[in-house]
Amino acid sequence: MALKPERGQFPPVLQTAMRFLPPPPLGMFLTHAVRRLSTQRPDLFERLGAYKRAQFIVDPVDLPYVFKLVPNGEHAFVEMLPKAKAPQGDAKITGPLIVLLGLIDGTYDGDAMFFSRDLVIEGDTDAVLALRNTMEEADLTPAELIGLNGQLRDVVDRCANSTLANLRKVLDAPQAG
Amino acid sequence: MASNLTNIPQSMELVCPAGTPAALKAAVDAGAHSVYCGFRNETNARNFPGLNFSVKELRDGVRYAHQRGTNVLVAVNTFARAGDVGIWTKAVDDIAACGADAIIAADLAVLDYAHKNHPQVRLHLSVQAAAATPEAINFYAQTFGVQRVVLPRVMSVEEIEKLNKEISVETEVFVFGGLCVMTEGRCALSSYATGKSPNLTGVCSPPGDVSYDEEGDKLYARLGGFTIDGFEAGENAGYPTLCKGRFNANDETSYLFEDPVSLNAAALLPRLRAAGVTALKIEGRQRGKAYISQVVKAFRQAVDVLDAGGNAEAEVSAMLNAMTEGGRETTGAYKKIWR
Amino acid sequence: MQKIELALGPSFFNWSVDYLHDFYARIADEAPVERVYIGEVICGKRMPFNDKAWPQVIERLERGGKQVVFSTIALPVTKRDRVSIHDLCELDMLVEVNDMAALAQRAGKPFAVGPFFNVYNEGAAQALIERGMETLCPPVELPLASVATIAKACPDLTMEMFAFGRLPLAVSGRCYHARAHKLHKDSCQFVCDKDLDGMDVDTLDNQQFLAANGIQTLSHSVQALTLSAEEWHAQGIGRLRLSPHDIDMVQVARDYRALLDGEIDSSELEARLKAMPLPGALANGYIAGKPGHVWAAD
Question: Do chains A and C touch by CB distance (3+ pairs < 8 Å)?
């Protein structure tokens, strides 16, 4: 299923610029974040069931990279790969970065984004559904994802939420559901 | 005889879905009188990946709900697989052990087991049993001690009113969300196309059997290889639920069974109350907590306004409009013209 | 080894009284079936018409040596539906129960249970046997392995398999024949009498898919279970049900009898069936736990 064109994507100039920048070491950082989550919220990984061993490819269309995620508890890993080297994986989720981020913190409803074609799902839809329902239960905030707590967490969340909200407006992303 | 629900209001009881513990909390906080949920296995009719409760999550959920005066009803409403009935009876035991307020069941084997082994727990007859006549309902009441029946979504308000005069048990009706066109528990369309069905595996039109195929400038939504609907470029795609598809029959293309609409009987609440309905059920255990929270708030307000002697129609439709986002609605079989 | 019997199921379709008389007269005289289920199981609105046929049909079938079983309606809704069930359950003859309302009124006297009634396991079967069930024709989607499990747990019960005909997949409060003809159920003009085997329902790309028959949805394909007598026996099956269609049902019964008697093999039966003007392609996926529309050997 083809994406609805242009909605919510970074401007082409920025997309081109990013291709020439060195990739930030996000993979290792996210791997740690997911592994940390597995000790804090083991129920989430139990909820994923057999799908925690599935290979999810998350493809932000406006970035030159894809993320490969295997959410296997303490053995979880996240890898950031150049698009050309993206493996097929068990399931692939494609969309503008701002929409993908909105799915993690619950700004967007996965179903709604799918039916409005702001999001494309390929491969094992059961795996994606398991991931979606688990995210729904997880209720992650941006700060939680990077392992903050206490007062700092609230500050970061508020800051991240307003930044994302502004970004959604600037990029003409779909309205939050 | 099992106890009564502790928190039944004088008026109508709002029974709300919870696919996850987060959704349970959302429904309780939004004012649900009762929440219904199921275990994360084939014993319940919303057996989707990543959904539902472990035994521990149910125990915690019951505690959370009870602290806030909300009942928890647990569905064990699929039909037990021959040779594996133990999975279903264990679910019944677990519900009783968790201190939940009622078991929702359809299978004779499950009803029989719950009645004989846990007579102190209320037994509700699931919509999957499709009991619509006084003879059937009274039989379930007398044989298994069923205290409430969830009515199939094929009855008109007039029929519900007549029925309530001939039965001694409470009735619960669906008022919002997905709409089964076929009589629940009597439909094998999904297994015909995919091998999986509500009665066999607790799923209908399962996502794993869905494909979206682009052909020319059209997008086709298929289930088990059968084309269920087609969409023009730019048109919002729909989910290929089998009975909501477009088909060719009698030389015409149409949504033969049902248009892709969802049920909204908010406008009928006063009539449903007058018809003697005890509880109002909201469909949607697969929906997210934000959705649950909004719908439950809207219906709770409607029920409260109704209690205060007002007519809640305007308020509710205003609140629910945001939920359907241009999607179409129907009052379904409650109005006889639907047939 | 006990003989595997044959039964003719109740007709799902809106056939005229004349058609019913002719159809059952031939069955009575020529079809090698031990049992015949009759009665209106789909729509109570048809009853005032076909009710007139049944007394003579019963008499004729009994004269032909058939055991006649009266089937109750699958989805009783109206007062008329409920009265029909009440009256049937009072009868001295064997009754097939297709809904809990009928069970409630028949319990204590012997009855058969039809494929519209949800029996998926031995526990449910046992609860019905306690109340008088003598035959069970389980829901069509139930795999043979599950049927065999029930049969094993209930040795005195006769298990009957839905062996031939379009599969009864669903019933509804809504009439699809009326809807397709832009009518309402209450003023349907009985348009379902136009389609003697149901109205074909195809996909947007014209793939044959389903068939509508009033409030009922059937498969487009025709189920054909073609195991041998030995194989059926090993699974605990005692009878095969052939569901009536507007084809030569006497010939269908003869061909099945020939298979069960070992005169022909499965592939010969399948070839003979395919040579008939069937309303759809052959299918048998359900017994293997596969989608119902597939041919399991594919």
Answer: no
